[in-house]
Amino acid sequence: MVKQTIQIYGRIKPTKKNTTVYSVDNEEQTGAFLEFLVPRDLADGFVNNKRECYRFRFLKVFDQAVEQEEVFENIAKPVADSVLAGYNGTIFAYGQTGSGKTFTITGGAEHYRQQYGFTTHISYLEIYNEMGYDLLDSRHEASRLEDLPKVLIMEDPDQNIHLKNLSLQQSANEEEALNLLFLGDTNRMIAETPMNQASTRSHCIFTMHLCRREPGSATLRRSKLHLVDLAGSDRVSKTGLSGQLLTEAKYINLSLHYLEQVIMLCQRRNRSHIPYRNSMLTSVLRDSLGGNCMTTMIATMAVDRRNLDCKEGLHTESISTCRFAQRVALIKNEAILNEELDPALVRHTHTHTHTHTHTLTALHQSLQPPFKPQKHAFMCQSLRPDSPHISRPKIDQQMSCSEN
Ligand SMILES: Nc1ncnc2c1ncn2[C@@H]1O[C@H](COP(=O)(O)OP(=O)(O)OP(=O)(O)O)[C@@H](O)[C@H]1O
Ligand SMILES: [Mg+2]
């Protein structure tokens, strides 16, 4: 088991304007610091009556000039390596609208390219206005949102979460996986808002389900990698949204509130009850937040002037994103190696042992006194695939989010 707190990184979106309101100090040993400096006398006659310096600690902060490749090497590669080894992984981006979450998670369409070759199952879930949709339904290419299959959350008696109607698509190589990402992105809810021309108005979870078999071994390792692009918080009063955009913003803010609530409670030593069930997002990310997963968060920040809070001259949104990240950094996860006996092999062994037992029984029945092959019968029982000692995979049409 690997016990690890959620790893937090920061990323500043590039801006053409010269900004001196923040500074980044990436020190190898002590981690990195991001500092927001707010002068007493602000432009436009505003005066800052609050603190002048806000300092936040991250593992590393990627400043404006840092390219996607470097972000990938530092953040995504270690997570991908653990997923390949058999642990669950999650990378999620959090930040205000327009701060670069979607860009960071997807790299922008021009970065979709082939690098490795591996086979996996993929699902792409969209949570829009608290409803789940399957973005990879092949019958509904580029369709309207209402036409996409609705994904429902089901809970089994052991309180494991299952997502009904979320398809799992096998991809034989990276090109197929990228096509699925592209198909899902085409189906996402995107709208133009005052803060972002192509604002993604939903939470999206692109999941790779990997299955790895050690050569010559009877065990399988199953792991999942969630790439989570959250919808950005909108300050409704500031951006003057109305109609559908306002409804969306209310749902987004409410689900981010529930996410924050779960994070607040997860960081406590005594985790008696965590209200994961309050929202679909927290239900699906249950493993990632305080469970069986290695989780990394990227806090994205935009530092243009228009992102300033006009009244106070503060980077209020960036500061609250950093505060959120500091709380996330306190959450301890316990990732385990998701190893199980290969059910196919177990079935084979069962049949084989069964036949062997029958042969022995027949042989011994012909002898006197009658022979009872109890030991073999016990072996048969303990190797049955439905034995409670053997966990079976749940790769049907559902995505399993059980805490192992
Ligand atoms: N590191 C970056 N380098 C270059 N362009 C970027 C970078 N980050 C973001 N952008 C650009 O900034 C714009 C807004 O970014 P993006 O759509 O990723 O924001 P977001 O946080 O996902 O916003 P929302 O919550 O509204 O969906 C996009 O045009 C994107 O291409
Ligand atoms: Mg987005």
How would you describe this structure in keywords?
404 residues, alpha+beta, 13-stranded mixed β-sheet, 3-stranded antiparallel β-sheet, 20 strands, 29% helix, 27% strand, globular, binds adenosine-5'-triphosphate, binds magnesium ion
The CATH class of the largest domain is identified as: Alpha Beta
* Annotated CATH topology of the largest domain: Kinesin
Radius of gyration: 25 Å
Q: Examine the secondary-structure arrangement and name the CATH architecture of the largest domain.
A: 3-Layer(aba) Sandwich
User: What class would the helix/strand composition place it in?
Assistant: alpha+beta
Distinct small molecules = adenosine-5'-triphosphate, magnesium ion
**Terminal Cα span:** 11 Å
* Arithmetic mean pLDDT: 77
Strand content: 25-35%
What does this structure look like?
It contains nine helices and 20 strands. The longest helix is centred in the middle third of the chain and has 24 residues, at 243-266. Helices cover 29% and strands 27% of the residues. Helix 8 runs antiparallel to helix 9. The protein has helices at residues 68-85, 101-106, 174-187, 236-239, 243-266, 280-284, 316-328, 343-365, 374-382, and strands at 2-5, 7-12, 22-27, 31-37, 53-58, 60-62, 89-95, 120-128, 131-134, 150-155, 161-164, 169-171, 190-191, 199-200, 203-213, 219-229, 294-301, 332-335, 339-341, 399-400. The chain has two domains: 2-340 and 394-400, 3-Layer(aba) Sandwich (Kinesin), CATH 3.40.850.10; 342-382, no CATH class. The chain has 404 residues and is an alpha+beta fold. Strands 2, 6, 7, 8, 9, 10, 11, 12, 15, 16, 17, 19 and 20 form a 13-stranded mixed beta sheet that branches. Mean pLDDT is 77; it is low at 114-118 and 367-404. Bound molecules: adenosine-5'-triphosphate and magnesium ion (MG). Adenosine-5'-triphosphate (ATP) binds next to helix 2 and strand 14.
